[in-house]
Amino acid sequence: MKMGTDTEPRHWHDQLDAASGNRLNALRAAVLGANDGIVSTAGIVMGVAGATSDRSALLIAGVAGLVAGAMSMGTGEYVSVSTQRDSERSILRFEAAELAAMPETEQRELARMYEEKGLDADLAAQVAAQLTQRDALAAHADIEFGIDPDELTNPWHAAWASMISFTLGALLPLLCVLLVPASARVVVTVLAVAVALALTGLISARLSLSPRLRAIARNVVGGMLAMGVTFAIGSLVGSLVGGIA
User: Is the pLDDT of residue 67 over 80?
Assistant: First the structure.
């Protein structure tokens, strides 16, 4: 079989090379956001549905959960990724100062790192010299910290991806509870959420190149458990409140 033909199987590293690290991070944030939107909003509306069948109460609880969750996800991702970006910038500043103060020492350190990766001493020295001449900071940042100075993590990408995906995920259980007749509301919502969680589990597994069935089962079981617990608690609280009233 010839190299580069369409029939040649692609290895896992080829799949990783097809997308940049930032794009993968945004995709993972989007999948996690959608998953959280589905589970948390389904839990909220199922809890309220266990206590009452009033559509107004379901709408208020669902919308409040959607907005609060989307804002929380977006803010959390922005703060987390901003902290990571600040750390990357600090590392680059420190490394640039070291390169300016002792360039020869830093080049020898770079060569030693390539030796530790398996290159012989002469080849490691040649590689270090060429990379230093081309872009010393990028070379050190890559091998020491896995950072690309031209592709720092973007907090806005992660924040917007999380907010939008959370909102889209949250709309599914909310619309099911609001639009489906009360007699079939719980069953339809559970089935719709199970299918949606299976899909997000599959996407998550494909992005992380992990076993699909395990990821799907974990996702669906977790979501069903969350809905079951909140529905039971909502029914109990509804009964207690009704008895007190």
Answer: yes
